[in-house]
Amino acid sequence: MILCADIGGSFIDFAVVHPDGRTEHRRSVPTPLDNAPAFIGALVALCAPWPDMPLHIAIAGVECPDTGIIRAANIPCVQSLPLAAHLHRETGRAVRIANDADCFALAEAHFGIARGHRNVFGVILGTGIGGGFVLDGRIVPGLGGVTGEWGHAPVVIPPPAPLDQEAAETLVPLFRCGCGISGCLDTIAGARALERLHLWAGGTPQTSRAILEAWQTGDRQAGRTLDIWLSYMGAGLAHVINVTGSTIVPVAGGLSNAHALVDALDEAVRARILTTTSGPLLKRAALGADAGLLGAACLGLDIRAQE
């Protein structure tokens, strides 16, 4: 059994996880955001009843594989902190840490909708967009600990030559991304970005839920917004599939609750990839709120070793 924590900007979700994915002793505590000793103390207290078990963590951030340094913009107290080393020193137990989107993909590969697939790219469609890449049951390590961040690269780019004003007004703007780059897919893709895109496309201020509901009832303006969204998202994700060769794409996050949106994005992707498929690539994830904990439990495992 493994102690697992799924740590976000609001709460630490904690449980003892069995090899078959069952959870016990699950509880949630607020995440201390501005006090590193309090943050470490919360985890030490959660783990205390089980002194001999390892601790695996899914976190809304990235651990550098070379230094162990954490980058987590929404949890400032651990920013630039070698968290695993601190926790090991305080508890004497083995500690593993991975990005929460990577853990989501890993969980779906071991226990969820992607079980049986060697090559899995998991997609989060939430407030922003994220992803995780799993090969043979392991997270694929990336430069500086970053893998699967398909939302952060400039896909909305300025034209190579000046356009007249009328043509320029038809181009999607180069919105500034939170990562510091302009034109990232994340600037038009997540729930808040979809709302901004809808305004630019001529719509009125609405929530992403309202926009999607209007789209599904045939609203013309919402249809224009979603046509733009699907064009960019389909192209971006098709590029990912052509590079990774993933055979399934589990989809989670708030926007994935709109089944028609996932189906439409799947069609947009499959129309743009090099390989013809007989069925959908994108499938709604199966594990819900358990994915972070279950993925953390799988850190260090290998599907091939279990077959």
Automatic annotation (TrEMBL):
<dbReference type="InterPro" id="IPR043129">
    <property type="entry name" value="ATPase_NBD"/>
</dbReference>
<keyword id="KW-0808">Transferase</keyword>
<keyword id="KW-0479">Metal-binding</keyword>
<dbReference type="GO" id="GO:0005524">
    <property type="term" value="F:ATP binding"/>
</dbReference>
<keyword id="KW-0119">Carbohydrate metabolism</keyword>
<dbReference type="GO" id="GO:0045127">
    <property type="term" value="F:N-acetylglucosamine kinase activity"/>
</dbReference>
<keyword id="KW-0067">ATP-binding</keyword>
<dbReference type="Pfam" id="PF00480">
    <property type="entry name" value="ROK"/>
</dbReference>
<dbReference type="GO" id="GO:0046872">
    <property type="term" value="F:metal ion binding"/>
</dbReference>
<dbReference type="InterPro" id="IPR000600">
    <property type="entry name" value="ROK"/>
</dbReference>
<keyword id="KW-0862">Zinc</keyword>
<keyword id="KW-0418">Kinase</keyword>
<protein>
    <recommendedName>
        <fullName>N-acetylglucosamine kinase</fullName>
        <ecNumber>2.7.1.59</ecNumber>
    </recommendedName>
</protein>
<keyword id="KW-0547">Nucleotide-binding</keyword>
<dbReference type="InterPro" id="IPR049874">
    <property type="entry name" value="ROK_cs"/>
</dbReference>
